[in-house]
Each structure stands twice: as C-alpha cells, then as structure tokens.
Amino acid sequence: MSLSLRKPFLLATLAFFAFSFLAWQAPQSVHAQRPGKAVKATKAAKPGRAVRMTRAVKKALQRKKNSKIRPAKAKKVSGFARVKKGLVLRESVRAKNTNAKSAIANGQLASAANLSTKTGVRNGKGQFTKGGLKLSIRERFSNWRANRAVKNAAFSQAKSRSKNGNLEGTADALAALNTLQASGKLGFFARWKKARVTNKVFRNLKSAARKSLKNGQVEAAGQTFLFATGIKPGTKAATKLAKTMVKDSFKLAVTFSKSGQPELTYSVLNMAASISAEANIKFSEKKAQKIVDAALTKAVPAYTKMAQKAYRSGDVTQAVSLLAEARSIQRGSSVKASRSVKRTQAKLVKNLGPALTSFEAAQAQQAQPEA
After folding, report:
1. 157 burial class (0-12, 13-18, 19+ CB within 10 angstroms)?
2. Mapping DSSP to helix (H, G, I), strand (E, B) and coil, where does residue 206 land?
3. Spatial CA neighbour of 315 closest among 303, 302, 324, 306
4. Domain boundaries, the chain
5. What pLDDT sits at residue 305?
6. Beta-carbon count within 10 A of 330 CB
7. How far apart are CA 120 and CA 364, in angstroms?
8. Checking phi first, is residue 165 left (phi over 0); if not, alpha (psi -120 to 50) or beta?
9. Separation CA 20–CA 37 (nearest Å)
10. How many whole angstroms separate alpha carbon 190 and alpha carbon 152?
11. Lowest-pLDDT range, 11-15, 151-155, 250-254, 277-281?
12. 330 vs 284: which has the higher pLDDT
C-alpha cells in the first residue's frame, strides 16, 4: 500500500479509538462520585440526576442527625403592640425606682437595694424576671441611677450609724451593699470602697463597744462586740479587739469593786469570760476572783452605811433591803466586817427586827428550788 493510501487509514483508525475512549469515559465520570452506588446506574440516564440524589441523601442524613424538636418561632409583634409594651415597661421601671428612692428616704437601705437591683420586667404572675435585654437605654439608665443612689446612701449611712453604735442601722446598710455586690452592681472601684467602708465600720464599732463599757453599759458593749467580730470573724483584728475588751473589762471591774458594787463587777467579769471563751484567749480566773473578793469586802460597809442613811431618812423598806444584802454577803463569803460596821448593823437589827426577819425569810424561801 502506498503512502498516499496509508495516511487516511491511520487518521481514521486514530479517530475511531479516540471516539471509543470518550464514549467509555463519559458514564464512568457520573458514577465515580459515589462508589458503591452501581445499583442506581439506571437512574443516571438523565443528566444531573445523580447529583440531585446525593443532595437529597445528605439532607435526609442531616435531618436524622438533628432530630431535635425546634422551638416555635416567635410571632411578629406589630408596631403598635411594641410601643404599648414599651410604655407599660417604662411605667413599671419608673414605679420600681420611685419606691426604691422612698425606701432610701425612710432609711430602709436593704429594701431599697432589693428594689433597685430588679429589672422591672414582670411575667404573667406580676413577678420580676431577668429580662434586662428587653429594656431600652432609658430604662437601663434609670436602673443605674437607682443603684447608684442606694450605693452612695449605704456607704455614708454605714459609717455614720456604726459611729453612733446603731447596730440595726449598720446591719441594714451592710446588707444593702451585699445585695448590690451579689447582683453585680458594684464595679471594681465600688468593691474596693466597700472593703474600706467595712474596715471603717469595724473600727467605729470597736470604739462604740469600748465607750459603752466605760459608761457601765455592759450588755450594749457585749452586743456591739459580737456584731463587730461577726464582720471579721477569725481575723487578727477580731482577736485583738477581744483582748482589748477583756483588758478594759478588768479595769472597769476594779473600778466597780472599789466603789462597792459587786453586781456590776460580776456582770463585767462574766462578759470578759464569755469574750475570752469565744475568742479562745486566756482568762485569769485567779485575778477575777481577787477582784470579786475586793468588791464584796467594800460592799458590806457601803451597804451598811446606805441602810443607816435610809433608816434615818424614814425609808424603812430601803433600809431593810440594804441591810439584808450586807448580811447575805457576809454569810455567803469570808468577808469580815470591822467593829464599827458590826455596831451599826447591831443597832439596825434592833430597830428593824420584825421587818428584817420577815424580809430575810421571804428571800430564803425564794432561793429554795421548787419541788
């Protein structure tokens, strides 16, 4: 075969093989996307059918994976309803903050803090809910002003009330600050200032407790001490305050014993013993007993002289009670009266014989335990 005849034959052969290869490759590209789906090859006759089936399968698998009940979409609120709801909410926030300011004016800081920290959003039952994101800028600013008013009032009142020894007022102011802090209404600077105010309150209560003790108000001093140590329990400051109170109590007991007042001496020393037990510090029983003995020794002549003055002034009842108290101290302790005191007591017993006898019998009967 000549070269002129071979050239068309070769070209035809090459064209045949190229067309056969392309015809064989076209269906393979459709089914190569999902190996293992050869069963559905009959559906791949239409172009694009295999791709649509793949997307449908993917959507079905995704729905099966996320087969959770979705919440229903909220209904759209009309413009008028939205405006009406905003006006109602604004009135609720305004009333709440007005009540908070009234509570501040009345000195009820804890109640004011409870009101100011609420958002103003109410549920169907009329109860406040945590709906802060539903508030507009105006309502949020109103709540911020109310919280600031409560905070400033609590800071000032905590210091002034503790300085005057007002325990209930101080507790109210501190409760307001704790409420604000628990609600997240105190920033970094406000929390730092709250710590400083708490320290100031503790120092004021310490001074008030010592002042009450020096004035002879033993019960008030004890209550103030307990309140002060409750602010800083288990701290070095509380232990130091306990030691100071015990030291002052012993000094005051010595003063009462020198003036012949055993009852006040007993009460002061009992308070010192309770403070020592609570703070776990040492209490000198020997020293306390020595002070009590000195008070009893001074009390016998003091009561005798007071009974003599009462008898001379015509107050027989007072004279009888004072003389009976002096005689009971002598019987219950090892106190020995001087000769002059004994002579005065003998004269009074002679003059107040029947009345004194009946008074002492009534006291003995009251002292006996009931059967």
Report:
1. buried
2. helix
3. 306
4. 85-123+132-186, 284-366
5. 83
6. 19
7. 67
8. left
9. 24
10. 10
11. 11-15
12. 284
Residue indicated by tokens 């190569």: 32
Whole-Å CA distances, 276 to 219, 228, 269, 290: 16, 15, 10, 18
Residue type, 59: K
Report the residue count for the chain: 371
pLDDT digits (tens, 9 = 90+) for 56-91: 777 777 776 666 545 555 555 555 455 555 666 778
| Its pTM surpasses 0.85 | no
Neighbours of 76 (CB within 10 A): 7
Which residues, in sequence order, are CB contacts of 200 under 8 Å at separation 6+?
158, 159, 162
193 Cβ neighbours under 8 A, 6+ residues apart: 155
Instruction: Establish how many alpha carbons lie within 13 A of residue 203's alpha carbon, considering only the half-sphere containing its beta carbon.
Output: 7
Cβ–Cβ < 8 Å for 176, 158: no
pLDDT in tens, 213-228: 888 888 888 899 989 9
What does DSSP assign to residue 79? H
CA atoms within 13 A of residue 200's CA, in its CB half-sphere: 18
The region of weakest confidence among 70-74, 90-94, 318-322 is 70-74
Is the model's pLDDT at 270 over the cut of 50? yes
**Residue of 102, 126, 125, 122 whose CA lies nearest to 112:** 102
Contact 344, 301 (CB under 8 A): no
Give the torsion sign (CA, 266, 272, 278, 283): negative
**Distant-in-sequence, close-in-space partners of 116: CB < 8 Å, separation ≥ 6:** 96, 97, 100, 143, 146, 147, 149, 150, 180, 185
